[in-house]
Amino acid sequence: MRMPDDVLLRCSAVVFRGESVLLVHRSARGADDWVLPGGTPRAGESMVACARRETREETGLAVEPARVAFVLEAVDPDTGRRTVDLVFTADGAPGQTPSSREEGMTAEFVAFSRLRALDMKPPLAGHLPGLFHRGGRRYAPYLGNLWRPRNGTRITRALSALPLLPPFRSR
């Protein structure tokens, strides 16, 4: 099944360092906004690999995306084009300094106190500090590509790696 042409898949990384978050300021071609580092997966590239590669290309930081922080959807009201962004948490890249690797893009760790003053695309300023303060308690694991048309071994192995939750009991 093909994804419709009006849907764009994006994979991003959210990297915290203290009470700041890694963002990319886009200033090329008249733009003046801030985004999480990320982009579109290449053919055959996993979503984790895409977030890792795009973060490296846009910020110079080598990070390891670990868990799904959230999935967001943005629909352009003028064109109807839909973007679905799978956002991963990634380690804080200790000891690494962001560097601009693409013209018109500048990466930096931005303090939470500055976020609301920025033109963020999409508008995540109110969500990022809360994500940081919740820590790892609400992240979802990323299971990767589990599709195996004739052999369920990979699915069984991936599911057995998840921690068991206590049974749900209604009151």
Describe this structure in words.
The protein is α+β, with helices and mostly antiparallel strands and 171 residues long. It has a five-stranded mixed β-sheet, with helices on one face. Mean pLDDT is 82; it is low at 153-171. A hairpin with a 6-residue loop joins β5 and β6 (82-90). It has one domain: Nucleoside Triphosphate Pyrophosphohydrolase (Alpha-Beta Complex), CATH 3.90.79.10. The chain is 16% helix and 29% strand. The protein has three helices and eight strands.
Relevant terms:
8 strands; 29% strand; alpha+beta; 5-stranded mixed beta sheet; disordered C terminus; 3-stranded antiparallel beta sheet; Nucleoside Triphosphate Pyrophosphohydrolase; 3 helices
* Percentage of residues in DSSP E strands: 25-35%
The CATH H-level homologous superfamily: Nucleoside Triphosphate Pyrophosphohydrolase
Backbone CA Rg: 18 Å
Question: Spatial order of the strands in the main sheet?
Answer: 4-1-6-5-8
Q: Tell me which CATH architecture applies here.
A: Alpha-Beta Complex
- The average pLDDT value, as a whole number, equals 82
